[in-house]
Structures are given as structure tokens and as C-alpha cells.
Amino acid sequence: MKCWICGQEATTGEHRLKAASLRELFTAVSQARPIFYNSARKKNKRLQSIDSKYLKSKSLCALCNSSRTQAADRSFDILMSYLKGLPPKVLAQSSFRMNRLFPYRTRAHSVQLHLYFVKLFGCLVREGDVRIDLGDFAAAICSGKPHPDIYVAIGPMDRALAGGAGTAGLSDMHCDFYQDGKPAFVAWFMHMGDVRIQVMLAAAGEHRDGLINAWHPSRNKRFLLREFPKP
Ligand SMILES: [Zn+2]
Q: What distance in Å separates the CA atoms of residue 35 and residue 44, rounded to the nearest whole number?
């Protein structure tokens, strides 16, 4: 497989769910204390290690997976350590200013945080063979500029939907395409413990419920947390 960002041979495995966050959530994963990973294709896959191949996507080269996206990864770690300290009630209805997460170079770090989701989104598209062109995704990462159509919403994870407390997982990708084959609206979510993060691609002019309180670094200096509708 070729790296979808730069076209070089893809050699490394990007963690679909970030290793540092998983390690914080599941302090000692082992044969005796496995974690259960849920995705569209694997239900309750028993994992004995955070380095399990089920948690990794092989669609990036070493450079794109490391130095090119290191700042993005770090910004995501900062977001997760902030969120994991919040009780579900606060996750359902509160907000924070981006300069609370990133007191220095707030705008640059906010863009990097957004680019982390662009990276993960691209890996999921490539790996799932979803027919979405990744040119704009790669251009955003290479230029360090936001993707104009990718939004993120955060709220509490429904424990019933998660399969209990202390779980992590990725949802299916729900896609609506226009007749010309271009994506109109695409959404997926991941959860880690009580935190649910929904990532969306919405073409200009699309008004979807999922976009309510959704964050984009060029539009919002404040991140509004929200409750997600029950399935
Ligand atoms: Zn690459």
C-alpha cells in the first residue's frame, strides 16, 4: 500500500486509537487483563497489547507517520488529557476556549489538533476502501492548513452503546454521496472511556444535525461540548 499523504511506500502502522490515550485508559493491558476493541469488522476483539495490529492502520510511510504529524499527535494528547478529567455531565454541556488547552500559539496548535483528525480520517478512508478522494486531506497535512470541510464534535459516550465502561472503539463510517460521486456528508466516531469524538466531512452548504456545536479551527475559538442523540 502507498502512503496516502506523500505516495511513498507505506511501512508503518499508525495507531487508529492513539496509543498514549489507550495506555492512560487501560493502564496494564496484558493476557490477564485484555481490552476489547470494537469496530465495524471486529466485534469485541480481545487484545492483549496496545501494540496489537488491530489497533494500527498501515496506510502511512514512516516520515508521514512520525515527524510530519508529530505536532498533530501532541495536540491530540493535550486534548485527551483535558477531556479525561471531565465527568460525563460536564462533557454533555460545557465549553472551553482553545487557549485554555493551548495557552501559547493557540491558533497553530488548534490547527494541528484538527490535522490529527484529518490524518485519522484519511487512514480510515484508505483502509476501508471508501471512495473519497484524499487529495485535500493530504494537502492540508502537507501545508499545515486546515481542511475546509472537516469538523469535530465532542460529548459523553453512551455506556450502553460503548459496551460498558472502560472500553474504546471506532464506529462504522456513514457516507452520503452526491450523484457525481463526491461526498456530501461523512461521519464516524471514536470513543475512549466516557469521551465520544465525532468527526465529520461536510461539503459546503450541507446543514446536518451532526454539525451543531461542531468545531473547526478557522471558525471557532471555543469548543462547545454536546450531548449526542440516542441511537
Ligand atoms: Zn508519506
A: 9
Q: Vertex 151, ends 150 and 156: CA angle to 5°?
A: 145
92-102 pLDDT per residue, tens: 989 999 999 99
Q: From CA 68, how far away is CA 40, in angstroms rounded?
A: 29
Question: Which residue is associated with the grid cell 508503518?
Answer: 12
Quote the radius of gyration of the chain (alpha carbons, Å): 17
Relative to beta strand 150-156, strand 195-202 is antiparallel
C-alpha cell at 64: 508521514
The vertex-212 CA angle with 207 and 213, nearest 5°, equals: 140
Q: Which helix (H) or strand (E) segment is 73 a member of? A: helix 70-83
Contact criterion met (CB below 8 Å) for 119 and 63: no
Rounded to whole angstroms, how far apart are CA atoms 156 and 191?
9
- Cα of 1 vs centre of ligand 1, distance in Å, is 11
pTM over 0.90: no
Ligand 1 centre distance from Cα of residue 63 (Å): 6
Coil, helix or strand at residue 12 = strand
Cα-to-centroid distance, 2 and ligand 1 (Å):
8
CA 93 vs CA 154, 172, 230: distances in Å:
10, 25, 16
Asked whether the beta carbons of 98 and 222 are under 8 A apart, the reply is: yes
Confidence grade of residue 41 (pLDDT, cut at 50, 70, 90): low
Cell of 88: 460525563
**Range from 57-66, 154-163, 198-207 that averages highest in pLDDT:** 198-207
Cα of 62 vs centre of ligand 1, distance in Å, is 7
